[in-house]
Structure formats: C-alpha cells, structure tokens
Amino acid sequence: SIDLSTLTRQTGLTALDYGFVNTASTRSAITYIDGEQGILRYRGFPIEELAENSTYLEVAWLLMYGELPTPDQLAEFDDKIRRHTLLHEDLKRFFSALPHTAHPMSVLSSAVAALSTYYEDSSDPHDPDHVELTTIRLLAKMPVIAAYAHKKSIGQAFLYPDNSLGFVENFLRLNFGNMAEPYSLDPTLVQALDRLLILHEDHEQNASTSTVRLVGSTGANLYSSISAGIQALSGPLHGGANEAVLQMLARIRDSGEGVGKFVERVKRKEDGVKLMGFGHRVYKNYDPRAKIVKESADAVLEGLGINDPLLDIAKELEQFALEDDYFQQRRLYPNVDFYTGVIYKAMGFPTRMFTVLFAIGRLPGWIAHWREMNLDPQTKIGRPQQLYTGSLERHYPAR
Ligand code: ACO
C-alpha cells in the first residue's frame, strides 16, 4: 500500500475512488478482516472463539482497551454500566413528542443525540475522564432507549431497568416485560442474543463506523458522533438489510412466486431488485459471521419450538444462489444480515426493531474507533476532495 496523502501532495494528483473501494482512511489496530479467506478477528482473537466463549461486555472492553479484562476489571465495568442505566425523566418525556409510527432507528438516533443535551458538562472529547464516563453512559443507556423506542411503537408503558439483572436479561425484560404473553429469560435465548451482539460489535471501516470517525474528526462529542453512526447504519445497504431480508422473505412467501422465479428477477435486475442479505464489499468468500448466525438460527428456533417457514425459504434461497453462475461469478454469499432477522423474529422483536439490535451490537466498535481516532496524533479533520465537473465560470445576466 502507498501513503496517498504524501504522494498526492508531492505530485499534485488527486485519486478518484467512488465508494472508497481502494482508499484507507486510517491505520487501525482494532479489527482484522481477510475477505478472501473469510477471516474476522477482534484485536487478534478469532470471531468464532469470542462468539463461543465471551460476552458482549467482555468483547466491548477488548475492543476499546485492546486486551481481555481481568475478572475484577470486568466485574467493575459491568457494575458501572448497571448503575448508569436510568434515563432522566425529562428524556423519557422526549419520546412522547415523537409519533408512535416513527421508525425505531430514527427514535434511537434522536434520543442519543438528545443525551448530549443532558451531559454537556461532561462530553469534552479531549478530557479522558469525560470520555470514560460518556462511554459507560452510552453502553448503559442506549439499550434502554432502544427498548423505549420499541415500547413506544406498540403503545406500551416504559419499564424502569432492573439492575439486578445482567445486561442481556435486563434488555429483554425492558422490551418484553408487561406484554400479554409471558417472556422468557431462558439461558439459551439470552446466550443466543449475547452471541448475536458479539458478532456485530465491530467490522472495521464500514459505512457507519467511518461516519462516526468522520463526525468525531471535527471535534464533535461522542453522543453526536454515535447518533450520526446510527443514521448511517439505518440504510438498507448497511444495517437496514436485516429488516429488508425479512420483508423480502415474507414477500416471497406471500406472493407464492417461488424462490427460483425470485432469483431470476434478481439476476435480470428487474426494478433494481437485489437479494438482500447477500454480498459484501470485503468478503468474497463466506462471511464468517453468517456461518455462526445460521447455526444459531437452527438452535434458537428448535429451542423455542418454532417452525418458521421463512427460515426454510431463506435456506432454499441460499442454496439456489450458491449454485447459480450469476452469484458465483460475482462472489456473492450470505452476509451477517441474512439469517439474523429470522432469529430476532423468533425472539419476539418486530421487524422494525432489527436494525436497532444491530446498533446496540455495533456500539462498542463505534466507541472503540472514536477513541482510537482521538488518541492518534495523525488524526486530521476528514475532508475528501472532489473532481469538479460543473461550469468553470459564468456571469449573472444583466437585467
Ligand atoms: N443481489 C444481487 N446482485 C448483487 C447483490 C445482491 N445482494 N450484491 C451485489 N450484486 C451484484 C451487483 O449488481 C453487481 O453486479 P454487476 O457487476 O452486474 O453490476 C456486482 O454484484 C457487484 O456489486 P457492487 O454493488 O459493486 O458491490 P459493492 O461492494 O459496492 O456492494 C453491498 C456491497 C452494498 C453489500 C451489496 O452487495 C448489496 O447491496 N447487498 C445487499 C444489501 C445487504 O445485504 N447489505 C448488508 C451488507 S453487510 C452489512 O452492512 C452489515
């Protein structure tokens, strides 16, 4: 690789790279991906090992501080997060100003931006104590905000967090407590959600993380940067794909057109229709996260005694695509989003909450990158160039 910033300064050349396909925006020591071989490692640890053995909070620590925490460090971290889950009562009223039809991702992003108004006195990006406190507050409060966005969308009262519960249990209770149907804190279910969160925790310079870094590079505080990252994640080509996958599967089921015909329409690029949950900018082999999610989907549905025809359609679709020249030539495989929706649905989450779950998962990665960027002496305000294609000079007509 070459250092383009030095080269272009010396030669006066500008590199044009739509979608930043060949441009690195930073050095980073957080996450390693080998897209050809389907390898993903956080701080050197294979994703498979972390998903099998670790927890969301332990991985969050690893991403942010570079090492696995000692048991004491993890216990203290967990305790701090439990003690910061409460939202200011005024912030709870903020939700009532939004329509109940609002997309939970918009609610989440707005409420996280609003957090900065409550903690203006402790959100200096250059004060390490402020950064520590803001990190804890975000990790503690964002799941609560997410659950309130869910409750708001179904017209139900918000619950106060129960800090005697673990991170994932508390989140499930905030979402499903007070429902007509009893909810389950079955350890298999809790572990499955914890594992899904781990799989989403970081993915180096994806669109939302790059957004968080770009906003942060201006000196904006962490709340504002994360709020912008949530908006970037919401698009269907990024985190919003998990919601789009389930809508696609449901359309295939309801239309009765069959998987084969649908795949033909995708190949003809009819109305720009894509196979959502397929393809990745970096992975040109199988996405290693998708492998783990697929196994989880089978285990969770079996554990809950659910037989969802959408999972069968997803498997049929994957098989069809993997055997087809169009997908083989373009090296398109299922990505992390392909099977997650089926699991979230089985857990009881409405489709519009799926990307919110992704956002909770990705939060530690966003924070880790924002912190890494702020500690890097090479960091500059992000400011891409353009190649101007408009009129060179014109004059306003005399009237
Ligand atoms: N279905 C059908 N065709 C596809 C798909 C797909 N899902 N993805 C890519 N292609 C085709 C493109 O049409 C293009 O074909 P062409 O050469 O005939 O024009 C070729 O494959 C290359 O695709 P690009 O769009 O150039 O690939 P890029 O790296 O820019 O995009 C992306 C990657 C956005 C993920 C794309 O594969 C896509 O839109 N997938 C569906 C949405 C999705 O699942 N997003 C989640 C990504 S993972 C994440 O963000 C968490």
UniProtKB/TrEMBL annotation:
It comes from Agromyces marinus. Keywords: Transferase, Tricarboxylic acid cycle. Pathway: Carbohydrate metabolism; tricarboxylic acid cycle; isocitrate from oxaloacetate: step 1/2. Belongs to the citrate synthase family. It comes from the Bacteria. This is Citrate synthase. Gene3D superfamilies: 2.20.28.60, Citrate Synthase, domain 1 (1.10.580.10), Cytochrome P450-Terp, domain 2 (1.10.230.10). PROSITE patterns: CITRATE_SYNTHASE (PS00480). InterPro entries: Citrate_synth-like_lrg_a-sub, Citrate_synth-like_sm_a-sub, Citrate_synthase, Citrate_synthase_AS, Citrate_synthase_bac-typ, Citrate_synthase_sf, Citrate_synthase_typ-I. NCBIfam families: cit_synth_I (TIGR01798), PRK05614.1 (NF004126).
